[in-house]
C-alpha cells in the first residue's frame, strides 16, 4: 500500500488504518497556519518541509465559541463523545486523507467531504465520520478543516482596505475550502487518485459550503460532481425578504465593527493582537444577550450572489448532483417553518394578480390547514427547497438524484434527525452509542454504496459492497419525479404532483431570472 507519498511540498508518511487496506494521512497541511499577520487574511500556500513529515495525529480543531464535547447536550452524546480530548487553535488548515491505493497509477476517484456545524462549529474527525469504511469501496476520501465563525467569516472595513485589489474579501472559510480542493487537484496523484474525478460533499453547513463552491468561478472546472445533504439554499421570491440569504459586504462590515465594539475592541489591530481563546471567551459572553453568527457575505468575487440567484440563472458548475434530506429534521418548527392563516393570507398578497390562483391551489381555510402546508413539499423549508431545486436544476439539463432519509433510529424518539444520515453515509453505525441492528447495517451498506458509486461515475446505481444490485435510482425530472426513500431498505418512489410548489417555482423564476 502507499504508506509514503511525495507531494509538491515534501514527503508524507501515513499509517496503516484500522482496515490494513487503507492508509491514513492525518494532519496534511494545505496552507500556512493562519496565525499572527495571517489572521483574517486569505489562505496562503503551505510551505515546503525537509525530510519525512509523519502524518499520524489529527490536527487541532478550528476555533469555536464553545469547545465541542464539554456540554451535556444531544449532539455531545451523538457526535462529540471524544471531542474534549482535542485542542482548538487557529492552526487548523489541514486535510485528513484516506487512500486504499497500492500505487500512484490507480487513478481512484476522490470523495472530498466538508463538515457541517453552521459554519460556527464542527471538525473533520467527528465520531460519525468513518472515512476508512468509505475508502475501502475504492475511493480516496479527503476530510477538510477550515476556519469557522469569527475567524472564518469576519468582515471589517480595515480588512477590506488591507485586501489587495482584485482579491477576495472575507469569506476566509470558503477560501480555505477552495484552496484545499485545489491542493487536492495538484497533489492527489501521489495518493493514487485522479485529479479529474473530484466530487465534493457536505451536510448542513457543509451542504451550504458545497453550494458556494459550485457557484463560485474560483474553482474552474475541477469539481466533477456534488452531494448536498440537508439542505439546499433555495428561495421562491415569496419570502419576507425575497433576496435575503447572505448580507452584502457593506452590511457584513458594519456587523463586524459593531461586534468588536460590543466586546470592547476598538480596532482591527487590537483584535489581531488579542489571544484567539480570549476572543472566543468574549464572543461566548456577548452571545448570551444576542447570538453573534459570522457567515457568508456577498464579497463580489468568491461569493458574487446568493446561491438561488445562481441556480435560477444557470450560473453553476454543469455537473451531476445528489440531493438528500432527512424526514425527521423536516418536522421541527425551526427547520420546517410555520404558517398561521393570517400569514398565509399575507403571503398570498405577494403574488399580485395571481393571488386567487394561489389561494385556489393551496385551499387553506384556517390556522391548522395553513400550517399543514409546511409539513410537505408545498412550504417545508427543507422538503420544498430540495425538491424545488431538483425541479429547477433538472429543467436546466443537470442530472439530479434526490433521496429522503426516513429510516428507523433506535435508542430514543429522535427519529431521522438532522445529521442522522451521516451514520449511514459513512457506514459508521458501529461508532454510535445507539443499538443499531442488522437491518440498519444493511441499509448503511446500500447508502454508502450509492454515494461511492456516484463519486466514481456521477451515477449512484450499480452494486453494493457485497456485489448485490442496488434498487434502481432514477434521476429526478419534471416528468419523472423519482426519489429514493431510505427506510429499512432503499425504496424507489415517484413523488405526487405538488401544484403549490410548481406555482411557487414559476413565481421564483419570474422574480430571480435576469431580465
List keywords for this structure.
alpha/beta, 515 residues, 18 helices, eleven-stranded mixed sheet, single chain, globular, 3 domains, Rossmann fold, 14 strands
Please give the domain count: 3
Q: What is CATH's topology name of the largest domain?
A: Rossmann fold
Residue stretches low in confidence (pLDDT < 50, at least 5 long) are none
The end-to-end span amounts to: 56 Å
Percent in helix: 25-40%
Approximate strand percentage: 15-25%
Task: Note the total helix count.
Answer: 18
Number of strands: 14
The main sheet orders its strands as: 3-4-6-8-7-9-10-11-12-13-14
Write down the overall mean pLDDT. 95
Overall shape: it is globular
Account of the 3D structure:
This protein is of the alpha/beta class. It folds into three domains: 319 residues, Alpha/Beta hydrolase fold, catalytic domain (Rossmann fold, 3-Layer(aba) Sandwich); 141 residues, no CATH class; 35 residues, no CATH class. The protein contains 18 helices and 14 strands. An eleven-stranded mixed β-sheet has the order 3-4-6-8-7-9-10-11-12-13-14, with helices on both faces. A three-stranded mixed β-sheet has the order 1-2-5, with no helix packed on it. The longest helix has 20 residues. The protein starts with a strand and ends with a helix. 49% of the residues are buried.
Please summarize what this structure is.
The chain is an alpha/beta fold.
Topology (elements, then pairings):
Layout: E1 4-7, E2 10-13, E3 15-16, E4 23-29, E5 52-54, H1 74-79, E6 94-99, E7 108-114, H2 131-135, E8 140-144, H3 149-153, H4 157-162, H5 172-187, E9 193-203, H6 205-215, E10 223-229, H7 249-262, H8 268-273, H9 276-286, H10 307-312, E11 321-326, H11 333-336, H12 341-349, H13 355-362, H14 367-372, H15 383-395, E12 400-405, H16 421-425, H17 438-457, E13 482-486, E14 490-494, H18 499-512
Parallel strand pairs: 2-5, 7-8, 7-9, 9-10, 10-11, 11-12, 12-13
Antiparallel strand pairs: 1-2, 3-4, 4-6, 6-8, 13-14
